[in-house]
Amino acid sequence: MTESELRYYINELSDWDKDSLCIIVFSSASELVKQQLIFELKKKAVNENHWLSSEEFDNLYQTTIEKAIENTHKRILNTFTPFTPFTDMDVNQLPAFPIDSLPPVLKDYVLAVAENKQVSPDMVAVSCLAVVALSVQGKFEVLPLNGWKESLNLYTIVIAPPSERKSPVLREVTAPVYEYEDRENRRRAPEVDKFRSQEKMLVTAISKIEDELSKNISGRKETFNPSAKEKQRIDEEYLFSQQDNLRELRKSAVYPLRLIADDVTPEKLIEIMNENNGKVSIISAEGGIFDIIAGRYSDRPNMDIFLKAYPGDPVKVDRKGGTCVSIECPSLTILLMAQPMVLSSIMENKDFKGKGLLARFFYCIPNSLVGKRKYRAAPIPESIEAAYKDLIFSLLSIPDTDKPLIIPYSPEADLLTEKFYNEIEPRLTEDLEEIGEWAGKLHGNSMRIAALLHCCQHLNKSADIPMAAKTIHDARLIGLYFLEHAKAAFSIMGMGESQEEKDAKYILKRMEKIEEDCTTVSAVFDLCRKKEGFKTMEEFRPKLDILVDRGYIFIESTITGGRPTEKIYINPEYRRLKAQN
C-alpha cells in the first residue's frame, strides 16, 4: 500500500474508529480485551473498505499503530511540565565531625576508639560529648547575655542501622563513668546504710504512734478524763516531733550515686533525679525511651520531665499519700543509639512534634564502615585510655554547689558569640525555615558545647577562667556539623518538608503498584482514599496536581463514548530515575 493510500485509509476512518485505535494502543485493558477490540475494528475496516484484503489491513494497521504511538508519545512528552524531582538528603554526603575542634585528650581518644572498634569517629565523638555533659551538668552554666542561661546537659541521638557496633562504643566511652559510680558507692555505703536505718526506725515509730492514736480515738466514746486527754496530747507531741526529725533527716539524706539510667519510666526517672541532686543521664543503645515517653506503660504520653529537665525548669510531682517531689533545677543528659526506623516511628507521634521534644536533640548520622572494616584493629593505647579516664574522673569529682557556677566569657569570645548568632538568625526565615524550631535552638546549644569544651580544659577552675575565642570558634564548627545532620534526620522523619509535599510523595508511593505507563485519576484515587486527608476527590486532587507541576505525571481528559475519563500518563523520565536508584 502506498503512503497516499495509507493516508486515505486513516482519513476515511470514522472518529469512532480513531478513538478505538487510541484505546487499543494506550488503554490499560487486558490483552484479551485489546485483541477483541482489534478484531472488531479489523472486521469493520474490511467490510467498509472491500478493496482492502485482510493481509493488507494487517500491514496497514501495524503501520497505523506505530505512527499513532510515535505521534502520541511526542504529544504527551511535550505536554509534561519540566521534570523537577523531589530531592532527598544524601546521608552519605554529610560532613564529618570536626575532630580538630575537640580538646587534645578527647581528640586522641575518639580517633583511637574509632580505629579499635572500626566505626566512624563521629559516633565516638558525639558519645564523648554526652559523657562530658553528664559529668558536669548541674555544676556549671553559661550566660551568653543577661537573662539568658544555658545549662550544660545535652540531648543527643546517633542514628545507625544494625551491626554498626553501637553497644561496644557505648560500653567503651561510659566505662569510666560506671567505674567512678562504683567507687563512690563503696565509699558512701556506711553513710547510706546509716541513713536508711535511721529513716526506717523513724518511719516505723511514726506509724506505730499513728496506729495507737487512731485506735484510741476510734475505740472510745466522748470522755472528760483529764489523764486520757493528757496522754493523747503527749502522744501527739511525740508524733509531731518524730515527723520533724524525719524531715530533717531527709534533708541530709545520703543515697547511692546513680549517674546513668536506661529505659526508665518518667516517674522512676524523677525519683532517681531526686536522689541524685536533681540530675542523671539516660544512655541506651536503643531508642526505646521514645516508646516510654509516648505512653508504653500508661494511657497517655508523659514527657514533662524531658521537656523541663533540658532548660532546667523546676519540676514538682505529687505522689500518692500526699507527698511532693520538688526539683528546683533538674538536669538530664540523653545519649541514644537508634536505628533509622525509630526516626520514622517518631514522625508519626504528633506529641513529639507538637511539644518540641525533637527540637532539643543533637542528631548524628555517622558514615557506615560496614564492608570496609578490618579484622585486626589497633588496640587503644593505654596512655590515651588513661588520659580519658582521668578527664572524666576529674569532671565527675567537681563538687556540686547550691547553684551552678557561671562560666564567664572573654571579650573576644563574646564578640564571636554575637557574630555566630547573627549568622544563624536570618536563616531561620530562609533556608532553615522548615526546621526552624530546631535551628532556633542551635546557637544556645552550641554555647553548651563551648562550655563543655571549656570544662575539659579547665576542670574545677572553669568558672574562674574566661572562655576563649577559640573555644567559641570550635563550638561553632561542631554546631554547624550538627545542623547538617539535623537536616538529614528531619528529612528521614519527613519533618523537613511541607505537608503537601509529604502527601504528593504518598501518592507516588501508592502509584508504584501500577506497572503500566498510563492509568486513570479514579484508579489512583482508589489506591489512596483510605488515608486521612484523601477521603474525597476534592481533598485528593490538589495533592495530585503537585505531581503534575513537578512533571511526574500528565493528566488528559478523553471522551470514549461515555462520560469523560481523566487519564494519567507517567513521565518516562521518572521511570528511568527510579530504575537508576
List the helices and strands and how they pair.
Layout: H1 3-12, H2 15-26, H3 31-48, H4 54-79, H5 104-117, H6 121-136, E1 140-145, E2 148-151, E3 155-159, H7 166-219, H8 226-251, E4 260-261, H9 266-274, E5 279-284, H10 288-293, H11 304-309, E6 315-318, E7 324-327, E8 331-338, H12 340-347, H13 350-354, E9 361-364, H14 382-397, E10 405-407, H15 411-424, H16 436-439, H17 442-458, H18 469-492, H19 499-511, E11 518-520, H20 521-528, H21 537-549, E12 553-558, E13 565-570, H22 572-580
Helix pairs in contact: 2-3, 5-6, 5-14, 6-7, 6-14, 6-17, 7-8, 7-14, 15-18, 17-18, 19-21
Extended strand count = 13
Number of helices: 22
* General form: elongated
Characterize the biggest β-sheet: 5 strands, parallel
Structural class: alpha/beta
**Reading side by side through the largest sheet, how are the strands ordered?**
4-5-8-3-9
How widely separated are the two ends?
46 Å
Can you tell me about this structure?
The protein is α/β, with parallel strands linked by helices and 581 residues long. It has a five-stranded parallel β-sheet with strand order 4-5-8-3-9, sandwiched between helices. A three-stranded mixed β-sheet has the order 2-1-10, covered by helices on one side. Strands 11-13-12 form a three-stranded antiparallel β-sheet. The protein has helices spanning 3-12, 15-26, 31-48, 54-79, 104-117, 121-136, 166-219, 226-251, 266-274, 288-293, 304-309, 340-347, 350-354, 382-397, 411-424, 436-439, 442-458, 469-492, 499-511, 521-528, 537-549, 572-580; strands spanning 140-145, 148-151, 155-159, 260-261, 279-284, 315-318, 324-327, 331-338, 361-364, 405-407, 518-520, 553-558, 565-570.
